[in-house]
Amino acid sequence: MRPAFHIPLTEDELRTLGEIAAIQGQIEFFMSRVAALLLGLPPGNASLVLGTTSAHARAKAWRAITDYKIPDGAWRERGEAISAEYIQFTQRRNDLIHGLFAYSLSELGGILIGPNEVTDLVADRVNFAVKGSRRDTQICELQDVRDQAARLTHELNKLWQALVSGEIVRYDLGSAGESG
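^ thats the sequence. predicted structure below, dont judge the formating
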């Protein structure tokens, strides 16, 4: 069944939007696994610590865990960079996932949504918030946001693998990590 209004995205753009949503699951998987290893928890229990619907709050909790449990150095810096990148990615993802894709009628000062594709007038395709303001992340950035998500999975996987292999030795309770 089609939605009430035409979505002015190509099949490739719709697929890329779906990939962004699917890759988000991998990001959350790796964040949860890293947190579980660092905290010494069973994998499913890390979601209790990170289990919030706010990605910003999740990123802050994850960063606090990595700052507390990973000794100073390159791996901690990598964890900090991942957290910052995740916050930026999430804002861009939210702009796209929660966007109202429409045609901009800039010369008329408005937007056009409707049951049919606009073929008889020249209009830019744009991403609006429901409240009517233009979102920061636009359709032309879909592939870049998708690639940013994929890069995050690779960075998180490297961190996870370093923990699993013992390359990163986490601080344990009662060690120097408690004072940091």
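Residues 36 and 46 are 5 Å apart (CA to CA).
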